[in-house]
Design a protein that fits this description.
Elements (H helix, E strand, L loop, with lengths): L12 E12 L2 E13 L4 E5 L6 H8 L8 E9 L2 E2 L5 H7 L4 E4 L13 H13 L3 H14 L5 H4 L9 H13 L5 E5 L7 H18 L2 E5 L3 H7 L2 E6 L2 E7 H6 L4 H8 L50 E3 L2 E6 L5 H11 L8 H8 L4
Parallel strand pairs: 3-8, 3-9, 6-7, 7-8
Antiparallel strand pairs: 1-2, 1-4, 4-5, 9-10, 10-12, 11-12
Helix pairs in contact: 3-4, 3-6, 4-6, 6-7
Protein name: ABC transporter ATP-binding protein
Subcellular location: Cell membrane
Membrane topology: Peripheral membrane protein
Length: 361
């Protein structure tokens, strides 16, 4: 039986068994499979995983932003006592941009070339808050200043093509924040930018999040970004969450062989080519057309065994109930197996790791 929103009153957003499938010529593709998680006020949740793991489709379907008639979405997305998956399009439009805002990877997709930056922000305010034209213009200047755009009184009249990529992404963030949403959904908002601008935008999002007290759900390929910004992380593989928990726990004592692979493939700070052997995950992720009775990672996993023909459930660690993973390997074996994979990315505190790995959850 699905939880009622009342049982999750501390959560801002409660996602239960979100499942997305699409009918294609080749058959049904299962894109998001039984994804459940909660977001509390002030959370910065990072969703990581390889290309095609279902990160974008999870994010987009929280707000029913996909309009493909071949798509079937099931589950529940509880927000403020309402299930977003069952709301009318009219009510959803009030929530989109007003209470839940979205930032995409390419800022240009959010901006119409023939309108000024100020118009875009003012439009958000007028749509959701019935603000006068003059007040909206002044607020647009304030917001552009807040996101670090120089000479905001001048830039407010600029067209999108007159701004650099980084400036455009800042303008989109200003638009998203215009109505002070309680949740910000961001799909790789820094991927198209250079490294310095990426760091600045990430920093800005963290500052704004703490100032406005909103929650952020952030999709990225980059585990470094998660380490820097997120307090919670969800690792996705083939449409499922395979590991989730507080970022520091997941990064210090990762439990799932797929997470070990992801962490093993990033260079450690200060490492040189002589001292480090980076590990990549062999093989490629399965097509969403594949139906799995068992673990979807089994084909690529160095530790596959008989039990993996069954789908492993997400199970929490005994002493860390917020940290869970979906793998049949005995908990007591994890530390030594992880050490074999994580040649270059050792856990932060090996003593702590040893303590935590004792005993099955
Ligand atoms: N409308 C659609 N029809 C068929 N397949 C789709 C459709 N939309 C998405 N998919 C497939 O669903 C899977 C998950 O897509 P999604 O965009 O969520 O991946 P992602 O994790 O965001 O990847 P990336 O990191 O490359 O952005 C992919 O295999 C994609 O090809
Ligand atoms: Mg994506």
């Amino acid at each position: 039986m699905p939880n009622s929103p009342e049982t999750n009153c501390d959560a801002l957003l409660t996602v239960e068994a979100l499942t997305v499938s699409v009918r294609t010529r080749e058959g049904t593709a299962n894109i998001v499979r039984d994804v459940s998680f909660t977001v509390a006020p002030g959370d910065f949740v990072g969703i990581v995983g390889e290309s095609g793991s279902g990160k974008t489709m999870t994010l987009m379907n929280l707000l029913r932003l996909t309009h493909d008639p071949n798509l079937t979405v099931s589950g529940h997305v509880w927000f403020g006592g309402e299930d977003l998956l069952t709301l009318s399009e009219k009510r959803l439009q009030e929530i989109r941009g007003g209470q839940i805002a979205v930032i995409f990877q390419d800022a240009m997709t959010a901006l119409t070339p023939v309108y000024t930056v100020g118009w875009h922000i003012a439009e958000q305010l007028r749509a959701h808050q019935n603000t006068s034209q003059k007040a909206a213009h002044s607020r647009a200047i304030e917001l552009l200043k807040e996101v670090g755009i120089p000479a905001p009184e001048v830039r407010v009249n600029a067209y999108p093509h007159e701004l650099s990529g980084g400036m455009r992404q800042r303008a989109v963030i200003a638009m998203a924040l215009a109505c002070e949403p309680s949740i910000l959904l961001a799909d790789e908002p820094t991927t198209a930018l250079d490294v310095t601008t990426q760091a600045q935008i990430l920093d800005l999002m963290q500052q704004l999040q703490s100032r406005h007290g909103s929650a952020v759900i952030f999709v990225t390929h980059d585990v470094g970004v998660v380490a820097q910004a997120a307090n919670k992380v969800m690792v996705m593989y083939s449409g499922r969450i395979v590991e989730q928990g507080p970022t520091q726990d997941v990064l210090a004592t990762p439990q799932h062989p797929y997470t070990w692979g992801l962490l093993g493939s990033i260079p450690k700070r200060g490492a040189t080519r002589r001292t480090v052997r980076l590990v990549s995950i062999p093989g490629v992720p399965p097509s969403p057309l594949t139906t799995h009775d068992g673990c979807a990672f089994a084909d690529r996993c160095a530790f596959v065994h008989e039990r993996c023909v069954e789908q492993p459930p997400l199970v929490a660690l005994a002493k860390h109930p917020d940290h869970s993973d979906a793998c049949w390997l005995p908990r007591s074996d994890r530390e030594s197996l992880r050490a074999r994979v994580l040649v270059s990315a050792q856990p932060a505190d090996p003593n702590d790791t040893a303590k935590r790995d004792q005993g099955p959850a």
